[in-house]
Amino acid sequence: xxxxxxxxxxxxxxxxxxxxxxxxxxxxxxxxxxxxxxxxxxxxxxxxxxxxxxxxxxxxxxxxxxxxxxxxxxxxxxxxxxxxxxxxxxxxxxxxxxxxxxxxxxxxxxxxxxxxxxxxxxxxxxxxxxxxxxxxxxxxxxxxxxxxxxxxxxxxxxxxxxxxxxxxxxxxxxxxxxxxxxxxxxxxxx
Length: 190
Ligand code: GRF
Hints:
The chain is α/β, with parallel strands linked by helices. The protein has one domain: Rossmann fold, CATH 3.40.50. The protein contains seven helices and seven strands; from the N terminus they run βαβαβααβαβαββα. β1, α1 (13-23) and β2 form a beta-alpha-beta unit. The longest helix is centred in the last third of the chain and has 24 residues, at 163-186. The protein is globular, with a radius of gyration of 16 Å. The two termini are 18 Å apart. The relative contact order is 0.16. It binds 5-O-phosphono-beta-D-ribofuranosylamine (GRF). The site of 5-O-phosphono-beta-D-ribofuranosylamine (GRF) has 14 residues, from α1, β5 and α7.
């Protein structure tokens, strides 16, 4: 059994799908949810699955010795960022080379980088009159949204789309593909 640790700052709908998928799996299990936000919906979701969660401060992220110890204790094989809005410290990147992945709600390399999260991403896609958007699952490196791309899936952008309607379509793609791609990574198919 491989061990997945999810980092999430928000509602955690992706984390929920991943916890659900791996609750039935003999490949891996989600062993821990890490959040930097006391009010994050993901914490209740972890509770419902009986999965341990751990709150960290932004200082813990800047000097991550304790966090690295926790990840080591959990024998972490893969760190999944699912709506985690902070940068991952270089020390963590070095300890987990090619073992940290993120999902971004657009077709990178476009519409990524600092400040490109949530509604901002979808509004920028609409403002540029793109005909399609989608999801990018990628490895994490020192720069926001610049690590190697593992998988992308596309959807149409409609003329009538608002940032909200596009966000909903993209989120559906995330839910459909993220757990499956994580599984493929863990069994060495990606
Ligand atoms: C998703 O759109 C993901 O692409 C981005 O943050 C959002 C998280 O949503 N990185 P949720 O918390 O999983 O519902």
